[in-house]
Design brief:
The chain is mainly alpha-helical and about 220 residues long. The chain has a domain of about 140 residues. It has nine helices and two strands. A two-stranded antiparallel sheet has the order 1-2.
Length: about 220
């Protein structure tokens, strides 16, 4: 499958830290045989889908890895309302945790790509993310032949470099450096790393603890 990409920029770059905004991103898949399952899954991310449908759609898209990226990228400008399942992942909230706006299908699609490539980070460290809705199209076009693991390591290295470069400057955060060093170490060790759903060893540990707690609870009931 080849892609036709049109990117239209607006605004001016006032500083290196202030990226240009993207007025339009258009991606058209040129193929006589497109995988309709991806389109069906993306449509199921809608606010009109129930929790089970959304979970199933996310599983289809994540299990497909980078094969689903072209379809996800084609919907970056989709302004249809997405399921509230993406509310916490992609939307800003006020001090009380109330959403300031509703997530769109486009935002949900970007979140699924970023989650697979970079993972789901604590909010305070997200300034070191490599991917953004503005750069993800050109980033993917330059790397679409690479396996997911290589993309994960490459972005982890770039994020760590960005954090280290702030040393000695206002806003330098040693905790962020340690966090990113740990992420990169896990990816390179191949012991945990990111699975296609963005999990890390921390998630695995939490899941194991939860399963153990459930097992202990079941055993206690059986003894009664």
């Amino acid at each position: 499958m080849c892609l036709s990409v049109t990117i239209v920029f607006c605004g001016s770059r006032s500083s290196a830290a202030a990226p240009q905004s993207v007025a339009a991103i258009s991606i058209r898949a040129h193929s006589s045989q497109t995988d309709g399952s991806y389109e069906t899954a993306i449509a199921s991310l809608s606010e009109n889908s129930d929790a089970a449908q959304v979970a199933s759609a996310i599983a289809v898209l994540e299990n497909s890895g980078t094969k689903a990226f072209p379809a996800l990228l084609a919907h970056l400008n989709d302004t249809a309302r997405a399921s509230v399942a993406f509310q916490r992942a992609v939307m800003a909230v006020d001090a009380k945790g109330n959403a300031l706006s509703h997530p769109t299908i486009g935002e949900a699609c970007f979140d699924l790509i970023q989650k697979q490539v970079e993972g789901n980070w604590p909010k305070g460290f997200r300034q070191y993310y490599v991917l953004s809705p503005e750069n993800v199209v050109s980033w993917w076009q330059a790397r679409k032949s690479k396996p997911l693991k290589e993309l994960q390591i490459e972005t982890a290295q770039a994020s760590l470099l960005k954090a280290r470069q702030r040393r000695g400057k206002p806003g330098y955060w040693p905790e962020a450096v340690r966090f990113l060093e740990g992420r990169l170490r896990e990816l390179k060790d191949h012991r945990f790393g990111f699975s296609r759903n963005g999990w890390t060893s921390t998630h695995v540990d939490l899941l194991s603890k939860k399963r153990c707690a459930s097992a202990r609870h079941a055993a206690a009931i059986a003894r009664q």
